[in-house]
Amino acid sequence: MAGQADAVSDPHDVISDAHRWRVLWVLLVAIFMSLISVSIVNVALPSIQDGLDASDSDAQWVLAGYALTFGVVLVAAGRAGDLMGRGGIFVLGVIVFTLASITAGLAPNADALNAARFIQGVGSGLLNPQGVGMIQQYFRGSERGKAFGYFGSVVGVAVGIGPVLGGLLIELGGPELGWRLTFLVNVPVGLLCLALALRWFPRPLLRRTAAGAPKASRSFDPVGSILLGLAVLATMFPFVEGRSSAWLWLLLPVGILLGWAWVKWEQHYRATGRAPMVDLDIFSIRSFTNGSVIVMLYFLGMTSIWVLVALYLQEGTGKSALQAGFIGVPSALISAYAASWAGRRVNRYGRKVVIGGLVFALVGLALSIVVVVLQAQGLVSEWWLLASLAFIGVGQGAVISPNQTLTLADIPLDYAGSSGAVMQTGQRIGTSIGIAVITSAAFATLGVSGSWSVAIAVGFGLIGLVVLMALAFAFKDQHDRMRDTAATFHGSSPPPSARPLTR
Fold first, then answer.
1. What stretch or stretches form a coiled coil here (predicted)?
2. Could you tell me which CATH number the domain at 280-484 has?
3. Residues 6 or more apart from 452 whose CB is under 8 A from it?
4. Which of 147, 248, 457, 479 has the fewest Cβ atoms within 10 Å of its own Cβ atom?
């Protein structure tokens, strides 16, 4: 899998082995902090509403505001890191995120809290693409797969531990202080990340120009950044807030139009001899296109699982928020181990690891449907979900980080941050669409049938269909790789996935 992306294009890419692992741990701690800020807040919403006398709309925006700004700034932040230095943009993101966490924890009213959450999302959007870009920058070959494996472990633990930690903090602090602690817990973590980054990150943290590229002021492509940000916002907003007004769905075609305008602008910008925000030739690399589709479909389906499980346990079986949070812990721990295991082996087995993970996810979904249906008939306990969801944990660990390794393997380092951010933007859009569509289908089924077991079975069935689509693309990518290998072996022209991008 060594290719264009493995070429060392900057002397700053060369650091000692011990040094690069220290850098990785700083990245992972910050990424954990940003991801847990999504799941930890879910269980705090009732306390936030009581403590601030917030409306349902205010509570919705505590989640939606963070998700929207996170998704909007990702690609622009990734490109800024590519051009001006990933370490410096990462540090900036940690500072913004930590200050916003303090503001959120001390918010006197719902408007102040939501403003802080918007800024928190910006901080998360700044730091996350730098994590992916710096793994690409400082790790090669099998070490890169191992590093992305640790990345996947962090994702798994953050998703599973967040609700439990949120429940514990609310129990500890009570209804008034508890929800504030779910934000303030980020402060010591953020300060630690900042101190270690300033101590361990290679210098300079920021640079005026990228290696061999035009000046950043000319190459950052502000028009492209604005167009793409507006396109992502217009696409995500109806799915996040569309229940409040049917008129908001008119933003969806506007988002598509803005996306088309962005593509045309990027083509024009490159034709003038400048480096665009995203080199659209990355989509001619089949491994990148296939992998990006796989991860978007995966997040479109699988992130709804934990929303449905929490609703089912609390509304359908009467469990507390803390009990509902614990149901995901075994799956999260298994996911963390599976991600590390898969990361060490992805260079050897390639796309087969991802295919295996998707199959495990499908098995977990099917078994979970069986548990829910049998529980409704009084034949088994709902706690059997601990076993069925463990298969989903294996799937998550074997899909997310190995797919990231394979998808970015042939991307040039000059576009490592922005290309990783394109993938993450697809994840955010997929998550927004999936949660909106799948939960709506589950609630509609509940309204007709009056049965939580039927509603959850329908929701999980829809997720299974989306995962089957991701599996089809995984098999397609496996076929493309085999064809490319055969073409190279027989001495024909290099396949698209092996050709360097022209800039």
1. none
2. 1.20.1250.20
3. 312, 315, 316, 317, 372, 376, 446
4. 479
Angstrom distance (rounded) from CA 151 to CA 339: 8
Tallying the residues shown for the chain, one arrives at 503
Which residues lie closer than 8 Å to 182 by C-beta, 6 or more apart? 40, 41, 44, 165, 166, 169, 170
Query: Which residue's entry shows tokens 């989903």?
Result: 392
- Where are the chain's structural domains? 16-206, 222-276, 280-484
Distance CA 324, CA 437 (A): 22
Confirm if 13 and 134 have CB atoms less than 8 A apart.
Answer: no
**Terminal-to-terminal C-alpha distance of the chain:** 22
What residues pair up with 215 in beta bridges, in sequence order? 209
pLDDT exceeds 80 at position 241 = no
* Cβ pair 164, 329 in contact under 8 A: yes
The architecture (CATH level 2) of 16-206 comes to Up-down Bundle (1.20)
Residue 63 — very low, low, confident or very high, per pLDDT cuts 50/70/90? confident
pTM: 0.82
Query: Across all residues in the chain, what is the average pLDDT?
Result: 84
